[in-house]
From TrEMBL:
Signal peptide: none annotated. The keyword Zinc-finger does not apply. GO terms for molecular function: DNA binding; DNA-binding transcription factor activity. PANTHER family: AGA OPERON TRANSCRIPTIONAL REPRESSOR-RELATED (PTHR30363:SF44), HTH-TYPE TRANSCRIPTIONAL REGULATOR SRLR-RELATED (PTHR30363). PROSITE patterns: HTH_DEOR_1 (PS00894), HTH_DEOR_2 (PS51000). Residues 9-64 form the HTH deoR-type domain. It comes from Rhodoglobus vestalii. Keywords: DNA-binding, Transcription, Transcription regulation. This is DeoR family transcriptional regulator.
């Protein structure tokens, strides 16, 4: 039986994919140490996997390919980071009034921790996130309606946009597929971006909630200019150097 230091290429590929699915990103030096192989070996593995369309190479490692993914698959990725983000967001959720949550699993984690409220209405374009709110007294969940997006399982299209913009929110909590300090946030499709923009159009504040694997990257459809975002929440300490490019543009939490 092979020890970890003598793993074959296919075994390493399987382990690399498992880590990528779990964390959303791979750091070259860290994973080389875990696999007890050289950084050159891992770099070669990652290059081959990029050629197969399994990941995208970045400086120092690799990241998941941005693209539509089912809700249950996305929920398992970076779960601990989402829990930290949800804990930070909890203090910003009012007891009453209305807030918006997008169809992301990060927003779903926030929804699952709402607890009892004094008459809070929460609109979302995700049936899964809507279900998360049902156990909590004093919380009224509202679905935007719209067309079911088969890959992400969110509600999109004209009806979803109309539903999202028909209420007045104190805050809209949104995730993103990627974020870039100069370009802003972006999504895997124009349809996803349009619904988020509809929510934001009637919200006093838009709050971006995303884990650090999304930083310094871009997806397909532009969503928000960071100058229009009130707050950026990640699982990182706001003083973390990875946030240096953002701290002069948007408030960090």
């Amino acid at each position: 039986m092979a020890t970890i230091g003598t793993l074959g290429a296919q075994q390493r590929k399987t382990m690399l994919l498992e880590r990528l699915n779990q964390d959303g990103a791979i750091r070259l030096d860290n994973i080389a140490g875990e696999l007890s192989v050289s950084a050159m070996t891992v770099r070669r593995d990652l290059d081959h996997m990029e050629a197969e369309g399994l990941l995208r190479r970045v400086r120092g490692g690799a990241v998941s390919i941005a693209g539509p993914r089912p809700f249950d698959e996305r929920r398992a990725v970076r779960a601990r980071a989402k829990q930290i983000i949800a804990a930070k967001a909890a203090a910003l959720i009012p007891q009453s009034g209305a807030i918006g949550l997008d169809a992301s699993t990060t927003a779903g984690t926030i929804a699952s921790t709402l607890g009892a409220r004094d008459g809070l209405t929460v609109a979302t374009n995700s049936f899964e996130n809507f279900i998360c709110m049902r156990p909590f007294p004093g919380v009224t969940g509202v679905l935007t309606g719209g067309e079911s997006e088969p890959n992400t399982e969110s509600l999109v299209g004209l009806l979803a946009c109309q539903g999202a913009s028909s209420m007045l929110y104190s805050r809209f909590f949104s995730s993103a597929s990627a974020i870039d300090a100069s370009l802003g946030s972006s999504e895997v499709s124009l349809a996803e971006s349009q619904v988020k923009q509809a929510f934001a159009s009637t919200a006093r504040e838009t709050i971006l909630c995303l884990d650090s694997s999304k930083l310094d990257d871009r997806s397909i459809a532009l969503s928000f200019n960071l100058r229009d975002v009130s707050l950026l929440i990640t699982e990182l300490d706001p003083r973390d150097a990875r946030l240096d490019g953002y701290r002069e543009i948007v408030e960090l939490l």
